[in-house]
């Protein structure tokens, strides 16, 4: 993985957009980079799966269930983003503001699960850029909306009202402020591979979901306004 484990030069900004606000070109480039990683067999079984395997209980024991949850995942997403940029320069990871979907009469019908974005919401993924993907846990599958729930605007407001990391992370956070607990609800909401730690990262839906949760952690203690996270763009210095 030559060139994978590096950070960009000091002062270089990467602009993060909500997944659905990407231009057609930006969205297609993001999808194309993921597909190219999946096809790259210079590392077996392929470079995408090799990266996904890092998100596993055996290799990431400190990534879950404690205050390292936001930080570990931020570094992990940088590694994945750098790999994507080796395939398609200037690609950046989008985030999925699922609080917007939570306000829909039926979030399962969100454009997020259309062929233009993440593809099939139920059963084997047969539409969209990741149609036909296989994982070490079988064909890529989803069962959106069968269990748990998305994050709400109320959840977001509660998280952003806290000042200290211990107030929003395990083991000390109360449930209503616990960013990892609320994040986990979304994983289970998507279902199938996404519902389990060891298999979640093999679904590309993992990337925008996890990016939003780690952004909450980074912006902790800033103005308690939705604008801090859900305007058209989030700008993070990595």
In words, what does this structure look like?
It comes from Mytilus coruscus. Keywords: Copper, Metal-binding, Oxidoreductase. Its EC number is 1.14.18.1. It is a single chain. The longest helix has 19 residues, at 69-87. The protein has nine helices and six strands; from the N terminus they run βααααββββαααααβ. Residues 223-238 have low confidence and may be disordered. It has helices at residues 24-39, 47-52, 69-87, 98-102, 153-160, 179-190, 197-200, 206-218, 227-230, and strands spanning 13-17, 122-124, 134-135, 138-139, 141-143, 233-237. Helix content is 37%, strand content 8%. A hairpin with a 2-residue loop joins strand 3 and strand 4. The protein has one domain (13-237): Orthogonal Bundle (di-copper center containing domain from catechol oxidase), CATH 1.10.1280. It is mostly helical and 238 residues long.
């Amino acid at each position: 993985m030559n060139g994978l484990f590096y950070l960009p030069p000091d002062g270089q900004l990467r602009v993060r957009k909500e997944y659905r606000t990407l231009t057609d070109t930006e969205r297609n480039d993001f999808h194309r980079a993921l597909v190219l990683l999946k096809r790259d067999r210079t590392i077996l079984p392929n470079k995408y799966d090799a990266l996904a395997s890092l998100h596993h209980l055996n290799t990431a024991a400190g990534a879950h269930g404690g205050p390292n949850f936001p930080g570990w995942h931020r570094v992990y997403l940088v590694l994945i983003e750098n790999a994507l940029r080796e395939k398609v320069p200037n690609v950046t990871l989008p985030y999925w503001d699922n609080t917007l979907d939570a306000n829909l009469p039926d979030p399962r019908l969100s454009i997020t699960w259309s062929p233009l974005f993440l593809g099939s919401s139920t059963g084997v993924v047969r539409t969209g850029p990741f149609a036909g993907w296989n994982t070490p846990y079988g064909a890529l599958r989803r069962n959106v909306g069968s269990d748990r729930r998305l994050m709400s605007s109320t959840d977001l407001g509660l998280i952003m009202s806290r000042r200290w990391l211990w107030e929003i992370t395990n083991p000390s956070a109360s449930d209503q402020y616990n960013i990892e607990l609320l994040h986990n609800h979304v994983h289970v909401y998507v279902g199938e591979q996404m519902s389990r730690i060891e298999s979640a990262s093999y679904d590309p839906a993992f990337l925008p979901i996890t990016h939003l949760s780690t952004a909450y952690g980074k912006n902790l203690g800033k103005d308690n306004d939705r604008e801090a996270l859900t305007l058209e763009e989030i700008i993070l210095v990595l």
